[in-house]
Request: fold
Amino acid sequence: MQPEIDLITSFRNPEHIKALAAVIKKEVSRPINIMEVCGGHTHTIMKFGLPQILPEEINFVHGPGCPVCIMPKERIDHAIALASMPNTILATLGDMIRVPGSQTSLQKLRAEGKDIRSLYSPLDVIKIAKENPEKNVVFFAIGFETTTPMSAALVEIVLKEDIKNVFFHINHVTVPEPVDAIMSGGDAKIDAFLGPSHVSVITGYKIYEPIVQKYGTPISVAGFEPTDVMESILRIIRQFNAGTERFVDNQYTRAVSREGNLKAQELIARFMEQREHFRWRGIGDIPKSALKLKDQFAHMDAEVVFKEFLPTQELDDHKLCICGSILKGLAKPYDCKVFGKACTPSNPMGSCMVSSEGACSAYFKYGKLSKKGA
Amino acid sequence: MCLSIPSKVVEIDENNYATVDTLGVKRQVTLDLIPEPVYVGDYVLIHVGFAMNKISKEEAEESLRIYDEIAKQMREGEIDEDEGNVNYAT
Ligand code: SF4
Reply:
């Protein structure tokens, strides 16, 4: 029998991390601001203290890739309004429950007796709907391209089994558009990108090609583990040193291809289409950066069916919040006046403090490690 | 949120559900999203109750082989960190 390889710890080998750091230090030939788009990478970088072992030429800029953080308050207020409707069960994934809207959070509402469920999988909605035929079950769907096909799979089952009491509030967002929005202003200090791991599993790395062409910034799709991130950084350095035309590089070959998961892409295309625009917390309005149910499924679209319950006012973060600048590489969390004081993970004032994947939250948690040379 | 964990397929039932082993924890995921056939012993990435794709063992081993090689070079003193890295001619 072949010896098993451990696909997690093998990519956390301290000796490998150190060796990669040494090669990086040897080969780096200019300062490079690297944005990791995905909040999961932010977490890995901070947790394994990568800024401390990398040469100072490598500076991380923490991107917008945390689906909970980028949800504007008015959409959270939607979830709260939906959960407050009579005869309703609201179901959602992840940290969403904790995030405060303009008045309250789902968590508080649940403590007050509203029926709000944290799911392990979107498929749990089926069971909840069948067990509660007299209630409306609203699935508040969040996430990047990684999670979108799972919501689409749920839509497919609900239609096939003709389940009448399930509704969808779709907040699925996409990666290339916010990256383009950050770069298009012209003031962002970003030289290269770490491409998200699991978004790319679904979409394939082809989706980043237009960005590399437009801005000439290399992108290296990286796996989730520390040696993956380190290797991607080395590959970016080598791209700069080679001086050739920039391209989308794929470090995460064990899971990502150029085309991605076509079955998942097909499932999304069957039920969802691009929104004209979507407001991102901390960034603002971005055209075509999110999805919605196609019009033919309006009868199960919570935004259509329960329109009268949903507030329409747009709500911005506190004026002192500098998340927008942090996302462009123009500032670091500790440049914010209220960081760690008025703004903490339990009382977030802005998007980057909201979930453990946000830049401010990661700096708060791993704070002492992060302030290099200061 | 986008965290997905490599897991090993230990059983597949007739509804295309797999029992996977994630760091010793067993759970059920559907294989419906995976375009190609999945077999017991394969590794998959799982996310919110779905397997998203297969992980290539060969590619994983190839990456680890490269890291071993770099680590070996370092042990043998072939990598001098301070070499290069002096002027920033871009
Ligand atoms: S610390 Fe809070 S207020 Fe300041 S930038 Fe971060 S999220 Fe915004």
